[in-house]
Amino acid sequence: MSNNSLLSAAPKRICVLRLSALGDVCNLVPTVRALAARWPEAHITWIVGKAEYSLLSGIDGIELLAYDKSTGLAGMRALWRQLKGQRFDILLHMQQSLRASVLSLGIRANMRLGYDKARAKDHQTWFTNRRIAPHAHAHVLESFMDFAGALGLDTREELAQLRWDLPIPASAYQEADALIGSRPALVISPCANPRLRNYRNWSAEGYAAVIEHAWRKYGLTTFLTGGNSEVEQQMVARISELSRHLGEGQPVSLLGKTSLKGVLAVISKARIVIAPDSGPVHMANALGTPVVGLYATTNPERAAPYLWQHYVVNRYPDAVRAYMQKAPDQITWGARVRHPDAMSLITSADVCTQLDQLYQDTQTQVAGDSE
Question: Going residue by residue through the chain (371 aa), what tens digit of pLDDT does each one get?
Fold first, then answer.
């Protein structure tokens, strides 16, 4: 073991506890891949949320156990029964929530590794016996990789060779082919999951302007993805109404028409993806699909799609000044701007500029993929 490792011997059984969300789970995959590559004989069990299980199902070399948060304590007890008689060398407690910490109580492990004091939330340090080293101003993906670093892996080396390889079955590609065909696609996921006072959705008017720009300049047909919530249906209906004049260039709604694996396949076929801080930007990142993230209420330095950070539309500093009345260096790392008007600081010109730059910069990549 490395002198910097908390381990004295190679682990035989590793448990990863990270339930949600889709974007965070995508950011965690390279760390789990790195651990599996370092200790190929180790058995790795990853406890994930229900939707996240669907996203990751089929991943090679990893045992997935699903916990449905809606089942509460009864679901926890069921999971503990699944784990009865098992003891892990290491529990990687990578979920900063009280629910996950309570769930961790039924997981038997010699080492319970959690976040350092500065990054731990909801009293997570009460449920762990080891902590990762402090790392100020870390991206979420880097924070996960810090767990591997605590076990002796070279994080700089691992960050230089990130591996995802998210499994996509043939049936999912068939879904995508039936919906998109051979059309060059811009995929827009306009809405983030609704959470209390997390205002991450941009405007229908802004999206409509970008859709027209992408169609007229590049011949990209836009496909709108998302769930079937009322907010998403209203957003997509409004975008469609504003785009009626485009004729063949009108956006195509895929709401409720794909499985989660189907969404992965659709994103894998896209020329470019555009979305606010949400799962699809990180799914695109994991698949190597060029992506423009829209950020004003969350800090992109912490949560942007990792490989495409230079193409983010970043109005977060402006939002901090306008709605928190502070300079960005006066707030805690990763603080959210909880104001419903913050995303309105993003203009369609901002997004079109980044779209243009990303399109140009990835032309060679796309040409190579098509050969």
Answer: 555 799 999 999 999 999 999 999 999 999 999 999 999 999 999 999 999 999 999 999 999 999 999 999 999 999 999 999 999 999 999 999 999 999 999 999 999 999 999 999 999 999 999 999 999 999 999 999 999 999 999 999 999 999 999 999 999 999 999 999 999 999 999 999 876 577 899 999 999 999 999 999 999 999 999 998 999 999 999 999 999 999 999 999 999 999 999 999 999 999 999 999 999 999 999 999 999 999 999 999 999 999 999 999 999 999 999 999 999 999 999 899 999 999 999 999 999 999 999 999 999 776 556 55
CA distances to 9, 101, 241, 267, 324 from 26, in Å? 29, 21, 33, 14, 30
Q: Which residue has the tokens 């109005």?
A: 315
The Cα 142–Cα 155 span in angstroms is 8
In this structure, are residues 52 and 128 in contact, taking their beta carbons and an 8 Å threshold?
no
| Element housing 221 (H / E) | strand 221-224
What is the model's pTM? 0.95
Sequence-separated (6 or more) residues with CB below 8 Å from residue 60: 165, 167
DSSP letters spanning 119-179: T--TTGGGG-SEEPPP-TT--HHHHHHHHHHHTT--HHHHHTT--------HHHHHHHHHH
Taking residue 238's Cβ as centre, other Cβ atoms within 10 Å add up to: 16
For residue 37, the SS3 value is: helix
Coil/strand/helix, residue 93? strand
